[in-house]
Amino acid sequence: QIYVVFSEELKCWCRAVFQSVQCHTVHYQLRCFLVDYAKYSLVESDNIRVPVGVFTRLPYRAKKCSLYCTKPVTLHLDFCENTAKIGPAKRWDTAAIQHFRDLLK
């Protein structure tokens, strides 16, 4: 379900999908994915609204996607045999993600 949230960081209202809720002493904060900006943000519960009318039917500006036929790899070290081989990995490591972001900039 899509909601409208006010992002303090962007200083504007955005469409969002909620990921999780964090309880604080006075208020709740919700971790959400801003669908038009492709970023995650923490939003206070006071800054959440239900979208109305045509606003709900607008296409998202950001889409989750992946690179075609590109799989994560990692360096496997074998200290007994004193070798290093590149092999498949389950996830991209943080250095590879940062390098890809730097290339995009």
Keywords summarizing the entry:
single chain, 105 residues, mainly beta, 2 domains, two-stranded antiparallel ribbon, 7 strands, 10% helix, EC 3.6.4.13, hydrolase, helicase, ATP binding, nucleotide-binding
Number of helices: 1
Low-confidence stretches: none
Q: What's the average pLDDT?
A: 84
Q: Largest sheet, if any? A: 5 strands, antiparallel
Number of distinct beta strands = 7
The N- and C-terminal alpha carbons lie at a distance of: 31 Å
Strand order of the largest sheet: 4-3-2-1-5
Class from helix and strand fractions: mainly beta
For the record, the count of structural domains works out to 2
Quaternary status: single chain
Instruction: Write the H/E string, N to C.
Output: EEEEEEEH
Q: How much strand?
A: 35-45%
**Rough outline:** elongated
Determine the fraction of residues in helical runs and give it as a percent range. Answer: 10-25%
Cα-atom Rg, whole angstroms? 20 Å
Organism: Neopipo cinnamomea
Domain Tudor: 3-68
Protein name: RNA helicase
EC number: 3.6.4.13
